[in-house]
Task: structure prediction
Amino acid sequence: MDDRNWNNNKVSYGEVIARLMMVLVGFIVVMLGFITFIHSGEHRMLGLLIMFGGIMSMFGGLPNAE
Result:
């Protein structure tokens, strides 16, 4: 490819990779929170809080409409 195509591109690949990683890590945290909620008799509130943090991380990784 020509270098002019890469210089004219307005997509920041670092930001795209960071957002993708943020969504994936959020999904993993949600799964860990769900496992904690299901398999723990006395730590159900902790599982819910972990799931909430994972969901907020996933929403934070979604692109803005700017």
Notes: The chain has three helices and no strands. The first helix runs from residue 3 to 8. Residues 22-60 form one domain. The mean pLDDT is 87.
